[in-house]
Each structure stands twice: as structure tokens, then as C-alpha cells.
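Q: I have 471 residues here and want to know how they pack in 3D. Can you give me a structure?
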Amino acid sequence: MKIYPVILSGGSGTRLWPLSRAVLPKQLLPLVSDRTMLQDTALRLHGRPQMMAPLVVCGNEHRFLVAEQMREIGIAPLGILLEPVGRNTAPAVAAAAHYLRAIDADAVMLVLPADHVIENVDAFYAAIEHAGAMVDGGALATFGIVPTAPETGYGYIQSGKPAAAAQCYSVDRFVEKPDRATAEGFVAAGNYYWNSGMFLFRADSYLKELQEYAPAIASATEAAVSKDYRDLDFCRLDEASFTSCPSDSIDYAVMEHTRHAIVVPADIGWNDVGSWSALWEVQPQDAQGNATRGDVYLDDVSGSLVRAESRIVAVVGVKDVVVVETNDAVLVCHKDQVQRVKNIVEHLKTKQRTEHLHHTKVYRPWGCYEGIDIGERFQVKRITVNPGGKLSLQMHHHRAEHWIVVSGTARVTCGDQVTLLTENESTYIPIGTTHRLENPGKLPLHLIEVQSGSYLGEDDIVRLEDVYQRA
């Protein structure tokens, strides 16, 4: 049996603000280890028997980061499917199922969110093997996490009679997030499990059930895949077809209705890292129960998570708090109140601010740039261009630019002239002049850009030509 991991890498980046943002959600961040959560998910089963190359499903705005992060860990994905809009998990999985079935009529899908922690990978693989014994018969397997506490933030699955394979059970029902007393009863009963959102089934089995219970999703996603097209290393789903698809979760659309659902109990050290307090739980802690990262000073602090991204953070005389510092924002809250972080994001949206959308450091397919200073009619950025990276051939209507090379080699197109610049050399790009920046070297190119003009917004870019097909 060939198993195709399908990694769902969507997400809006609200619950772990200010570190997680809309254009850089938690699955693309190194939260738990030195690798990002997407990378950890891809590596988790890489090289295991039966496991094929992963298929990643993500949004268009994250495509280059996803591709680069997979390249960094040496895994060539089977494909990267781009969702034109977010439509929840049922359509995302359906698109992956249509895509896989065209490659392998007998494809078995292992559906994995990109942002989960699994500490005991061997136990997880054993659970996959148990589920695998059932899927050829049409079963749709979900992995139920053996609860360690009466959590009220998770949905639950009630198991029923034993199924034909070992460690597999029928599903009696799915239960929404319960109150505390109900959750305590579930844990005491012994046959309730946290709903992990991870699944194993044949692609054709899922599509058959989807056609029965959510035919509009089945038909819209089939059309989106049949009309897809290649864009560099990506597969773009047809925008009109996918946008017309109803939005629904896989549980609501299929799993709560199908007669073929089974649950496999999994005691695997699982955590969905759905809040700052959840991240604190899976981080190494000192003798006082503190989890820290970055340049942190603590004095009489206990049970806290403190994370510094750009400067020293000093915390004195408190307990059970979360302190997270980034270049442009600082969060301080009690661990019991971390669910209210989403209110901050809503406030930022209402005020039409940008701190919920992106960091001061913005990633592009050619590298990244970071805002250093901004004022009346000027802006200063630090730009990094990866070896071989090439910005679009472009022009600006409202600003001129000065480029100063800090290190590396820059090939600069300015009008009809092409010049090479090295360390401590500079150039000037007048308003309205066609220009391009490239890194022809083998080392990263670092430069300082000083913009001046009446309007300095990122939308004042007219792309004339672009190797990343953004023009």
C-alpha cells in the first residue's frame, strides 16, 4: 500500500499573534524546534515504509515560502496545490483526492494539518498501520487522541464497537467542544478521544462519501482540479470553480454522516499548538516552569512563556504570564486569557492597521526585505537577495531609490544600462525609470535601500517582467 501524506498548510495566523501573522502563519514559523512546523510535519514520516512524497495544499500568498521551506529540508513534494480562496478542510482534502486519484487510482491519503506537534512518531506510525488495515475496505479512519485532561478546547469522538482490525473502533458520534463538567465525564468514561483532525482513507472512498453527503463540494473541486494549470512548481486550482465551492469542514461534510467512519486511539504526545498556553506546554521548561526563547532575563518568575525576537526582554516578579516581543508589537497576558488574543487581531482589522497582516520583515520568492525607518517622504529598507535571485523588471511612478551594497554582488539594470556593484558601492534609480536588481553570486546579497518620494506604498510597483510570474 502506498500512502500519500497530504499536508494542509492553510491558516490565518490569529491565535499566536504577534508572532503569527496572516502572511506568516504558525505552520511557517519555528515555534517548537529550529525547523518550522511545516518542515517538522513533512519530516515526521519521511523515509518511512510505504510513505510517498507529500502533497502540500496551501494558499497562493504562502506558495514561495512553502516551496522554499521544503527545499531547505531536502524534500521534493509530489505537488503544491494552491487554493485561490480558503474554503475549509473538506474542499482542500477533496482537491487533493481528485489530484491523487489521477496519479494513482488506489491512492491512500494521510491527511495531516501542518501545525501539529507529535512527540511519539513511532506510536503514530503504529496507529497509521492499524488504520491501514481497514482502508481498503472503504473505511474512513480518524485518529482520536487519548485525552490527558478534560480539555474544553477540543472536539471529542466517542468510540463504539471494535472494528475488524486491531485498535480500530466504530464511531458512535462526534461531539463539539464541551463544557468542563461534560469533558470530565468524557475522560472518566474512557471511550472518548480528542478529535485530532488527522485522517487516513483511500482517495476514491472519500470522494464517494463526499458525493453522497456534500455533492456541491465534490463537483466544484473536481472542476477546479480538472481545469488546473501549472505555474512554476505550483498547481493552481481553477479560481472560478474553487471559489464557487461551499465552505465546510471534513467533519461536518463527511465524517459525521458516513457509515464507514472508524477511530484509531492514538497516544502520541499530540498538541495542536492552538494558543500560547499550548505552546508553553510543549516547550522545554526550567525548574520554575518557565519556557523562554531569545534574549530573556527573568527574576522571580514562574510558570511563564517569554519569547524575545529582536531585543532583550526582562520580566520580574510575576507568574503564569505570556510575554512575546517582535519588532513591531509586544503581547503581555495571563496564560488563562490567551484565547482573547484573537480580539486584538480583530481590533487591528477594525482600525485598518497592518500588524495582523505581516511583520516588518517581509518574505519574497527572491529573498526578503525589512523596514528599518520611515518618515515624511522617505523610507529605509534592508534587502536580502538569495543567490540567483532576481527581482521583477519594474518601475515606480512616485518614488526614487538609492541602493547601497553592504555585502555580495548586485547586477543592476537601470534603464538601458546594466552594471555590477560590490561592497560599499551604490546607485540611484530615478522616478519612472525601468529597473531590476539581481544577485549573480553564490552568496546572499545584502543592501540598504533608501526610498524618497510623495508615495512609498508597495502598490506603487509596475511589474513589466517577472521570472516568478507575478507580472
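Q: Anything worth noting?
A: DSSP finds eleven helices and 30 strands in the chain. The CA atoms of residues 149 and 187 lie 7 Å apart.
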